[in-house]
């Protein structure tokens, strides 16, 4: 209890104030200046020069529109000779900050609702009606079982289903890709940006770009770094990928647009920087369900008025357009805050030197005696002196 009382008494009734002691020591003096120089280098070099700590910063707000160009010719036994244009291979026609290009497909023609044999697998193959459960539904099946075992072909029997018939067979993916010519298609990306804090707007089609140039240019990192038209094959090549390999089972490519702008300079120096990378996982240890695909159908009525559809399982490359960046402009508030923080950091040098002098040097007790001085209350000292007299 006495110890606690003494601690409380010293906490409430004692006051300490810094005392300046000049220590003539080369080691301590050099260390103090070295630490101060390091702190100054950090504040000036990193905070102000590299990180531009004197600027107010804002994040980019962006909008994207895209336009594809390109035509392909195919000749197959199912579809015959056919021309494919933008309306055929861009599915859907518009997406938010993305674009899907169909490069491969499995088409199931003239499907009608009815009954037909299910696609053979371990669950659907049968020998008699007893092997087929009536009304059973499986998430991987094409329809609802009728309970009958029917011929799929001359060698295999499967359970009959109520479904869109004939059912799709996607066992084999076409190789090479059905629309391998898509490698030569071009993509125009129109990007508008806005920095709200500074009310600064710009777009990636620069003011000095002419209509003639825009019709003929193709993006190249060295010769045409600001052309907003991209060759699909070169996009995948820049990301270290083969377009023809991606086109078979599909994938996801990222087109990154970086807007880092120093608004203390002229607006003409605020320019986009493009980079490309593949976004879907290509780890060789994870080969299950690779690529990117989905299904859609085109509906119509045949000559008899029966609803009919063409089911398409589309494989392709989705181009995700990712816009990021920040803008900075001089502002007095962050400047003063960082100057104040830098001055406060200089105190670290004094604290570090005090620790070394008072706890690690040979003459630490001598320095401690010079550093600290204990003084009694002046009034209390006078009263004790009068009592002595």
Note down, in words, how this protein is organized.
The chain is of the alpha+beta class and 389 residues long. Helices cover 28% and strands 32% of the residues. Strand 8 (186-195) and strand 9 (200-203) form a beta hairpin. The longest helix has 25 residues, at 26-50. The radius of gyration is 38 Å and the shape is elongated. The two termini are 36 Å apart. The mean pLDDT is 87.
Any descriptors?
alpha+beta, 32% strand, 7-stranded mixed sheet, 28% helix, 4-stranded antiparallel sheet, 389 residues, single chain
Following the backbone from N to C, one meets helices and strands in this order, namely HHEEEEHEEEEEHEHHEEEEEEHHHH
Average pLDDT metric = 87
Distance between the termini: 36 Å
The major pleated sheet works out as: 7 strands, mixed
Strand content: 25-35%
Total helices: the number is: 10
Indicate the percent of residues in helices. 25-40%
Spatial extent as radius of gyration:
38 Å
Low-confidence stretches: none
The secondary-structure class comes to alpha+beta
How would you sum up the global shape?
Answer: elongated
Q: How many E-type strands? A: 16
SSE layout and pairing:
Elements: H1 2-13, H2 26-50, E1 55-59, E2 61-69, E3 72-76, E4 80-84, H3 86-89, E5 98-117, E6 144-151, E7 157-165, E8 186-195, E9 200-203, H4 211-216, E10 229-231, H5 232-238, H6 243-249, E11 251-258, E12 261-262, E13 273-278, E14 293-301, E15 307-324, E16 326-330, H7 332-345, H8 347-359, H9 364-371, H10 378-388
Parallel strand pairs: 11-15, 12-16
Antiparallel strand pairs: 1-16, 2-8, 3-4, 5-7, 5-15, 6-7, 8-9, 8-10, 11-13, 14-15
Helix pairs in contact: 2-7, 2-8
């Amino acid at each position: 209890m006495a110890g606690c009382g003494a601690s409380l008494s010293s906490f409430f009734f004692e006051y300490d104030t810094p005392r300046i002691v000049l220590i003539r020591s080369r080691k301590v003096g050099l260390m103090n200046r070295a630490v101060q120089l390091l702190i100054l280098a950090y504040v000036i070099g990193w905070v102000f020069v590299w990180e531009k700590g004197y600027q107010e910063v804002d994040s980019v707000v962006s909008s994207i529109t895209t336009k594809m160009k390109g035509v392909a010719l195919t000749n197959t036994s199912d579809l015959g000779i056919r021309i494919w244009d933008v309306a055929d291979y861009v599915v859907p026609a518009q997406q938010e900050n993305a674009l899907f290009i169909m490069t491969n497909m499995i088409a199931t023609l003239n499907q009608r609702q009815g009954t037909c044999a299910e696609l053979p697998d371990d669950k659907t193959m049968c020998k008699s009606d007893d092997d087929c459960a009536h009304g059973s539904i499986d998430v991987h099946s094409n329809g609802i079982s009728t309970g009958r075992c029917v011929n799929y072909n001359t060698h295999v029997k499967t359970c009959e289903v109520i479904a869109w018939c004939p059912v799709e067979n996607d066992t084999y993916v076409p190789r090479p890709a059905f629309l391998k010519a898509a490698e030569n298609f071009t993509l125009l990306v129109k990007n508008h940006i806005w920095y709200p804090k500074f009310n600064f707007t710009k777009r990636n089609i620069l003011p000095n770009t002419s209509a003639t140039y825009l019709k003929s240019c193709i993006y190249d990192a060295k010769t045409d770094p600001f052309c907003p038209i991209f060759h699909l094959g070169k996009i995948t090549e820049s990301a270290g990928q083969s377009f023809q390999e991606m086109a078979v089972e599909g994938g996801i490519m990222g087109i990154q647009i970086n807007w880092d702008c120093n608004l203390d300079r002229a607006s003409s120096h605020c320019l986009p920087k493009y980079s490309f990378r593949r976004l879907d996982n290509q780890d060789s240890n994870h080969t299950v369900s690779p690529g990117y695909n989905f299904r859609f159908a085109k509906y119509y009525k045949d000559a008899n008025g029966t609803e009919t559809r063409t089911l398409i399982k589309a494989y392709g490359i989705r181009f995700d357009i990712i816009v990021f960046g920040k803008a900075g402009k001089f502002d007095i508030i962050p400047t003063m805050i960082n100057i104040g923080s830098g001055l406060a950091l200089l105190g670290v040098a004094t604290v570090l030197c005090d620790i070394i002098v008072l706890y690690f040097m040979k003459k630490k007790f001598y320095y401690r005696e010079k550093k600290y001085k204990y003084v009694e209350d002046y009034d209390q000292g006078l009263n004790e002196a009068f009592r002595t007299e």
